[in-house]
């Protein structure tokens, strides 16, 4: 991605600002001296497209155009904040009224191609935000984190875990992972990888529903999946939708495995249901860029304290250390200054369903095994 970004910069030599004559580097979205917008013409066309879509009642079309415009505006500008607000407001409307999430008409080529081309501009804006780290954006990073946990547990972790004969329930879960691996072998690993794929597809489905352009998921056999975002979620609310969709689909995969266990009585299915649920729960710890921190970002203080209470209560009931970690991290977030100004009932509901459902599945006993 950093290579791609620098290619784009080389292909586009610096331009002169038509307003003040300052040299504007190719990756910049505005003139550093007078803040003239490099993509002014494309932005005007996108705004026009958005207004026309709106007039036709095509909310998703208007959102797609505004979202494209976001990528052409400097992130610290007032225009960026205003357009992000619009994207979020249209999203609320679509959610509340159950409107179509697919635009009725594609964005006109003229709007996309004017200037240096929005796709190039998008790559460049990501490049400007910090090279490779920004290229493999939000969801991509999440995926890699989950993948790293799995890779660790399935390789080096296995020996380490088998050595941990005593400890808290947190470690007993890790320990049983090692035991399951030893007993069930590759079948268990395959089941886990499948449930991780389902988790990732959940993120992808949410991105689609929000009309956020992203690359197709690239699956790395045996390790995980990667999605590269071409646009950013416009608000904490959108970020929460995308973030929690992974664990929600993951919960679905675990429930399916558990249902199959009930139908067949095969212990391996119970093991997959349990460990799958545990991994999704791990992703709900509201730290770093994990899914849980995306969800919590959309909640006001009261909602965050509600999560603290729910996680602590469930953790005490089922004696699962991960819940106490979630509660502690959520309490830290509840004291943070970035609380959302208004409640988001859907995010709170989703989070509580996840805590409850995953907790129930974490308590599943695998026949014949600890
Ligand atoms: Zn200028
Ligand atoms: Zn995830």
Protein model, in words:
A two-stranded antiparallel sheet has the order 1-2. The radius of gyration is 23 Å and the shape is elongated. It is 67% helix and 3% strand. Helix 10 packs across helix 13 and helix 12 (236-264) runs antiparallel to helix 13. It has two domains: 2-134, no CATH class; 136-362, no CATH class. With 370 residues, the protein is mainly alpha-helical.
Layout of helices and strands, plus pairs?
Layout: H1 2-11, E1 15-16, E2 23-24, H2 40-55, H3 59-70, H4 78-97, H5 109-113, H6 118-128, H7 131-135, H8 138-154, H9 156-163, H10 169-184, H11 186-210, E3 218-220, E4 224-226, H12 236-264, H13 267-282, H14 291-297, H15 301-318, H16 321-334, H17 345-362
Antiparallel strand pairs: 1-2, 3-4
Bound molecules: zinc ion (ZN) (2 copies).
Main attributes?
elongated; 17 helices; mainly alpha; two-stranded antiparallel sheet; 2 domains; disordered N terminus; 370 residues; 3% strand
> What is the chain-wise order of helices and strands?
HEEHHHHHHHHHHEEHHHHHH
Q: Looking at the structure, what is the overall shape?
A: elongated
Task: Output the structural class.
Answer: mainly alpha
Domain count: the total is: 2
Main pleated-sheet profile: 2 strands, antiparallel
How is the largest sheet built, in terms of strand order? Answer: 1-2
Low-confidence parts: 1-10, 110-142, 156-170
Instruction: Calculate the mean pLDDT score and round it.
Output: 75
Quaternary structure type: single chain
SS element count, helices: 17
How many β-strands, per DSSP?
4
Helix fraction bin = 55-70%
Give the names of the bound compounds: zinc ion
Estimated share of beta-strand residues:
under 5%
Q: Termini, distance in Å?
A: 45 Å
Based on CA atoms alone, the radius of gyration comes out at: 23 Å
């Amino acid at each position: 991605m950093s290579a791609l970004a620098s290619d784009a910069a080389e292909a586009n030599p610096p331009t002169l600002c038509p307003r003040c004559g300052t040299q504007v580097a190719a990756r910049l979205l505005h003139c550093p001296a007078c803040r003239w917008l490099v993509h002014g013409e494309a932005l005007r066309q996108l705004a026009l497209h958005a207004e026309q879509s709106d007039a036709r009642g095509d909310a998703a079309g208007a959102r797609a155009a505004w979202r494209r415009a976001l990528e052409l505006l400097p992130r610290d500008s007032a225009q960026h904040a205003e357009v992000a607000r619009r994207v979020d407001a249209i999203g609320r409307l679509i959610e509340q009224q159950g409107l179509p999430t697919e635009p009725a008409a594609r964005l006109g080529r003229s709007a996309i191609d004017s200037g240096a081309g929005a796709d190039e501009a998008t790559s460049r804006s990501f490049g400007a935000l910090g090279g490779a780290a920004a290229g493999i954006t939000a969801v991509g990073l999440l995926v890699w984190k989950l993948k790293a946990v799995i890779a660790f547990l399935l390789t080096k972790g296995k020996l380490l875990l088998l050595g941990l004969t005593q400890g808290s329930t947190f470690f007993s879960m890790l320990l049983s992972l090692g035991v399951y691996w030893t007993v069930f072998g590759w079948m268990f690993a395959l089941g886990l990888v499948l449930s991780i794929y389902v988790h990732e597809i959940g993120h992808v489905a949410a991105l689609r529903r929000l009309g956020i352009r992203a690359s197709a998921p690239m699956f790395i056999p045996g390790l995980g999946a990667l999605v590269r975002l071409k646009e950013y979620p416009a608000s904490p609310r959108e970020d929460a939708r995308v973030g929690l969709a992974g664990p929600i689909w993951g919960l679905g995969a675990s429930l399916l495995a558990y249902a199959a266990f009930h139908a067949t009585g095969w212990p391996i299915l119970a093991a997959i249901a349990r460990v799958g649920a545990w991994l999704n729960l791990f992703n709900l710890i509201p730290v770093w860029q994990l899914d849980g921190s995306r969800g919590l970002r959309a909640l006001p203080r009261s909602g965050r304290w509600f999560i603290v209470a729910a996680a602590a209560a469930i953790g005490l009931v089922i004696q699962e250390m991960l819940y106490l970690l979630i509660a502690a991290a959520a309490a830290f977030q509840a004291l943070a200054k970035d609380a959302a100004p208004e409640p988001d009932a859907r995010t709170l509901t989703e989070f509580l369903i996840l805590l409850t459902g995953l907790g129930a599945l974490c308590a599943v006993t695998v026949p014949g095994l600890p």
